[in-house]
Specification:
Distance between the termini: 137 Å
Helix content: over 70%
Order of helices and strands: HHHHHH
Radius of gyration: 48 Å
Number of helices: 6
Number of strands: 0
Shape: rod-shaped
């Protein structure tokens, strides 16, 4: 099957056909006719691409506007809330100071645990009253309950400290007598 191309071409006779005179114009018309409009599927995908781009830009713009407009809500405290917060801070400072003094002076662990439990119970009651206060901020009875709870805790700690002071004085007197 191997054949030389020269030999194959030698067997052909060359025919000189002349192209028609209008060949050039027909060829150009066919070329211009090849530029056909897009078919329906191509138009549909083109439309989908444009719609997706528009949706993307609109959603990004919406998210950007919402992120700039979202600021932390401003919490406005009423004068009663401000006063109550100040009172609460003062009482809590005093309660903490008294508790630290009590722990430093007390030598009985059971006594410390028992009074710590009482203070925790009072604190739990205070938290319940605080929840009620957040629901009804203008109720004087709730405010009085909050302050009374803080006063009770402070009074309890002062009573404990006085009791320990008295016990320490009695033990010192007994030590003086026995010496």
């Amino acid at each position: 099957m191997k054949q030389d191309i020269k030999e194959v071409l030698n067997g052909f006779e060359e025919t000189n056909k002349e192209l028609p005179a209008a060949h050039r114009t027909e060829f150009l018309e066919k070329l211009q006719g090849a530029e056909k409009p897009m078919s329906k599927p191509e138009n549909f995908y083109y439309f989908i691409k444009i719609a997706a781009t528009i949706v993307l830009f609109v959603s990004v713009g919406y998210l950007a506007l919402n992120s700039f407009n979202k600021s932390d809500p401003i919490i406005v405290e009423t004068p009663i809330e401000k006063q109550l917060k100040d009172i609460e801070m003062q009482y809590l400072k005093h309660i903490d100071a008294e508790w630290q003094n009590f722990v430093a002076l007390a030598t009985d662990e059971n006594l410390i645990k028992r009074f710590e439990q009482k203070l925790n119970d009072l604190d739990a009651g205070y938290q319940e009253i605080t929840v009620k206060f957040k629901q009804d901020k203008n109720n004087i009875l709730i405010i009085e309950s909050l302050v009374e709870n803080l006063q009770t805790r402070l009074r309890l700690l002062k009573d404990i400290q006085e009791h320990i002071h008295l016990l320490n004085q009695k033990s010192e007197q007994h030590e003086n007598i026995t010496i």
